[in-house]
Every structure is written in C-alpha cells, then in structure tokens.
Write a structure and sequence with these properties.
With 118 residues, this protein is mainly alpha-helical. The chain contains 5 helices and 2 strands. Helix content is 34%, strand content 3%. α2 (24-30) packs across α3 (37-45). It binds a DNA duplex (13 and 13 nucleotides) through α2, α3 and β2.
Length: 118
DNA sequence: CGCATGACCTACG
DNA sequence: TCGTAGGCCATGC
C-alpha cells in the first residue's frame, strides 16, 4: 500500500539531521524503495503545511530545490529555510551535496570522523 | 481501465 | 555540467 510506503518515507525524512539535505533517491533507498524516488516527491506534495517533517531538507539529486507543480509556495522559501540551517547555495541555486548531504552512515557527526570539510 | 502528468533517478554522450 | 532518453509508479481525468 502506498500509505505504508509513505510512512517509511516520512520516517526517513524525519531522520534528516539539522543543516543537512537528502536527495529523493537517497530517502527512497533508505526507506526501502530503491526506484521510487518519484513516490517521495508525491509524498512531500501531499504533506500538510503544519507538518513537523523537514520536507525542505529533501532536494533532488542535482542538489537543487525542486519546484512544485503549478504554484510554488514562494520565491526560494525552501532555500531560505535551508539557509537558516546553515546550508549555503551558489548562484545556480545549488548546494554542495558533498558537504551538506546527509550521510546515513554518520547519523550524528557530533564529533570528528565525518567532517564535512572537503 | 487507459492516458497524461509529475517536489525524480540513472545512464549515455 | 548539461541535454536527451528510458524507466518507475502514484494520482487525476
């Protein structure tokens, strides 16, 4: 059922740490849905506004914030939220997945090890 | 039930 | 990095 898959997606999305971003494919894979990145997109689209889910931390594989169909919520709203978390965007509206990309192997990089330096 | 669309991804050039 | 092509699947008409 779709609802069950959506629950997995939400479970993964809520795990995205502060100041980090994850791609649809990544979330889908972590949710146990390798080829269902599109489903993640639909899941986000169906998300209510007052949701506690960090949907703004979910972006596409290109490192850019995806544009919702038809009316978008605002000019760079998602980008603003990410910037508030410390995520930096370049002129192309793209972010560095190498630095801000969420590493499932390093859920909490509170110490050294996974240093997002580059 | 079939067709078109979509907050997408991967592969190839 | 970008453009094109193929694929996946839920949702709406």
């Amino acid at each position: 059922m779709a609802d069950r898959d959506l629950a997995k997606i939400y479970a993964v999305a809520v795990r995205i740490p502060f100041g980090r971003v994850a791609t649809y494919g990544q979330v889908a894979t972590l949710a146990g849905l390798p080829r269902r990145a599109r489903l993640v997109g639909h899941a986000m689209r169906e998300l209510p506004d007052g949701s506690n889910l960090p949907w703004h931390r979910v972006i596409n594989a290109a490192g850019k914030v995806s544009r919702r169909s038809g009316l978008n919520i605002g000019e760079g709203y998602q980008r603003h939220l990410l910037e508030e978390e410390g995520v930096v965007f370049d002129e192309h509206g793209r972010t560095d997945l190498e630095r801000f990309g969420w590493d499932p192997d390093a859920p909490l990089p509170r110490s050294r090890k996974a240093r997002p330096k580059r």
